[in-house]
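Predict the structure of DUF4138 domain-containing protein.
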Amino acid sequence: MKNYIIISALIICSTFAKVKAQTTHLLDTIYANDTKNVALFFPEPIRQGITGSDNFIFTYNREKEQYFGLLQAKPGKESNLLVVNRNGSIFSYIVRYKKQLSKLNYFIPLSNSIGNEKPIVTDSVLVESSEELVDNRTYYYQKFCSYLLNRKQRIGRIKKRNESIVLSVENIVFDKEELYFVIQIENNSALDYDLNFLNLSIETRQKGKRKSLQRLYQEPIYINNLPSKITESETVRFVYVLPKFSLSNDRRAVLELNEKDGERNIEMKLSHRYINNPN
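Done. Here is the predicted structure for DUF4138 domain-containing protein.
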């Protein structure tokens, strides 16, 4: 009887250890620096890749899905890299800066996946999964907007002024299924500017004897860093994210900046050439 109890206890401990080993997934570490590209090759094309810190940059083809991405790093604290393949497989790694690299290419097998974003689950868990996907999408928008605001890239000199308020569109970037509008407002006056709204619409010129203009408001799916007030001598930059669209020759985009309890309003018209040829 005593031997039976000991054997049973050993079996229980062994089973617990196996379960714990299966549920605990130790993340591998990938090292990178700012002088070389570290290539990561995945079993399926990359649909999404996000780093947890701005001192790590993971680049991949956002327009045409490919199997590899490139990682670079600047000196700083360690972070993480999350990659989602076209089939929903999720890969997660710790990323660290290292001055001298001994490995520049990583061929990642499917067995390294920590899970799938579309698991077969019950309805109740599906709701939670949908919420997580929304959170992941918002997180991606936030990180990509931050990346665009840190870049110095411009699409052209698109600027309009009313008194001492200057509205500029610095960049228009296409990524996945969205257009990102990087916008700047300068308040060069001695009065604060209270923002009432900033709308983007599509304007169509109606043909015929009675020529008219028709505007259709475009609802942003995400807005990053938009202030409610721009103080005197302050410059603010933010990003509007909209579903991708293109314009024919007789249509154009219109930005309307409106001041709350004021008249320093600006209306800026964007040619179809800017919309159809983003960065």
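The CA atoms of residues 212 and 271 lie 18 Å apart.
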